[in-house]
Write a structure and sequence with these properties.
Elements: E1 2-6, E2 13-18, H1 23-32, E3 37-43, H2 44-59, E4 64-70, H3 79-91, E5 99-104, H4 106-118, E6 124-129, H5 132-138, E7 143-148, E8 151-158, E9 163-167, H6 176-193, H7 195-209, H8 213-233, H9 248-257, H10 265-282, H11 288-305, H12 308-316, H13 319-327, E10 339-344, E11 347-351, H14 356-373
Parallel strand pairs: 2-9, 3-4, 3-5, 5-6, 6-9
Antiparallel strand pairs: 1-2, 7-8, 10-11
Helix pairs in contact: 3-4, 5-6, 5-8, 6-7, 6-8, 6-10, 6-11, 7-8, 9-10, 9-13, 10-11, 10-14, 13-14
The protein binds nicotinamide-adenine-dinucleotide (NAD) and glycine.
């Protein structure tokens, strides 16, 4: 078992890594939550898979335990679901000393976190991520949110958990498509912060994918350490934290334009990173060889998830629609789009005032790149 501390003065917390061992979580509950009611917020699928395991891990603590489940899916990261969870909390006597455990992927982590931040003006939250994406990204750093019909993650807060328990054995039941999605964020960390981690992934990906325990452990722990380094310097995303959005501005546009029906978040981020790497090359920040190296690694993933409807969609969407969508992103300030670009592999920066022409050319490039994949 390994640990990592996120240093945020009075909001500091520990990330505990384990594999098939929930004892550290039970010990933590016993130590910190005397007489507390524990509410595990999850979805119906994860409840079916893991309710018994969580219940038996906590049985000896003697704490009262209640599961609150919402249906599975991004569309349930909504005010309606939050309302449903609030109702169940009130009905079951949740109070300010209760603990909410977010057991699930990013959807549950964001929703349960949002509920924890707002219920009775804030109750304790523990994140227990069950997808690779949630382990390496969404469970850390305190961004919690629900979607609004007019925009993703539009209603939310920064609300740090009290602790994060990452048990990589949860990945044993994760479908391959979801596993690949998590990899988009892992590759992102290498590209923006750590060239040698990126190179390590290029050589060790097969081991990671076959859930080799050492390889998974290094992947998850290194990703978390890199994210923590950023969070500690800029918790509220005033500047540095923005680099974590590398590939995301383009990815969010793709998700939005396809009405969240075609691409999973990680898939859109993979494609967004192709555009962002190309833009970095067009801005003469990275070499053609580095850009080609990035694309050829990302290609290994994209060819596995790219469907005909996705290709058709990418061929049909116009550069102007795409550009307009970028401008409607919630992170756009005074009409200027901030792009996260690579200065080299392992270092990212924020670039404003990028010419519309270069952005449009990079968008157009994505379609050519995707078409070339199947030749
Ligand atoms: P998700 O939460 O929808 O989970 C993906 C699928 O895997 C779901 O069907 C889920 O039920 C299933 N699943 C989860 N764990 C499983 C397991 N162990 N075994 C079998 N099935 C399992 O998707 P995600 O990719 O984890 O998260 C995406 C969400 O995260 C988006 O809403 C995105 O906005 C958010 N996000 C938030 C942050 C942040 O910093 N807060 C960062 C990145 C993404
Ligand atoms: N997922 C980006 C962030 O946490 O800032």
């Amino acid at each position: 078992m390994n640990r990592l501390t996120v240093h945020l003065t009075d909001r500091s917390y520990t990330i505990v890594f384990s594999h098939g061992d929930l004892k550290p979580f039970a010990a933590y509950v016993r130590r910190h939550f005397h007489d507390a009611r524990i509410f595990v917020v999850t979805n119906t699928l994860i409840e079916r898979l893991y309710k018994d395991k969580i219940s038996s891990a906590l049985a000896k603590t003697g704490r009262s335990l209640k599961f609150i489940s919402i249906p599975d899916g991004e569309k349930f990261k909504s005010l309606g679901s939050a309302d449903r969870v609030y109702t169940r909390l009130i009905q079951n006597g949740a109070n300010r000393s209760s603990l909410i455990v977010a057991l699930g992927g990013g959807v549950i982590g964001d929703l349960a976190g949002f509920v924890a931040a707002t219920y009775m003006r804030g109750v304790a939250l523990v994140q227990m991520p069950t997808t690779l994406l949630a382990m390496v990204d969404s469970s850390i750093g305190g961004k919690v949110a629900i979607n609004h019909p007019l925009g993703k993650n539009m209603i939310g807060a920064f609300y740090q958990p009290r602790a994060v328990f990452i048990d990589t054995a949860f990945l044993n039941t994760l479908p391959d498509r979801e596993f690949l999605c998590g990899f988009a964020e892992v590759i992102k960390y290498g590209l923006i912060l750590d060239r040698s981690f990126f190179e390590w992934m290029q050589t060790k990906f097969d081991r990671v994918q076959s859930l080799n325990r050492q390889a998974i452990r290094r992947t998850v722990e290194r990703s978390c350490a890199l994210k923590c380094r950023v969070i500690e310097k800029d918790e509220h995303e005033r500047s540095l934290r923005m680099i974590l959005n590398f590939g995301h501005t383009f990815g969010h546009a793709l998700e939005g334009l396809s009405e969240f029906r075609l691409f999973k978040h990680g898939e859109a981020v993979f494609l967004g990173m192709v555009v962002a790497a190309h833009l970095s090359f067009k801005l003469k920040k990275i070499s053609e060889a580095d850009c080609a190296g990035i694309e050829s690694f990302i290609k290994k993933f994209v060819i596995r998830f790219l469907t005909k409807p996705m290709r058709r969609f990418l061929g049909d969407v116009s550069e102007s629609e795409f550009y307009q969508k970028l401008k409607s992103d919630k992170k756009v300030t005074q009409n200027s789009i901030r792009f996260i670009i690579l200065r080299k592999i392992g270092r990212a920066g924020i670039q404003e005032n990028v010419s519309e022409l270069l952005v449009r050319q990079s968008i157009a490039y994505l379609n050519q790149w995707v078409n070339a994949l199947h030749r």
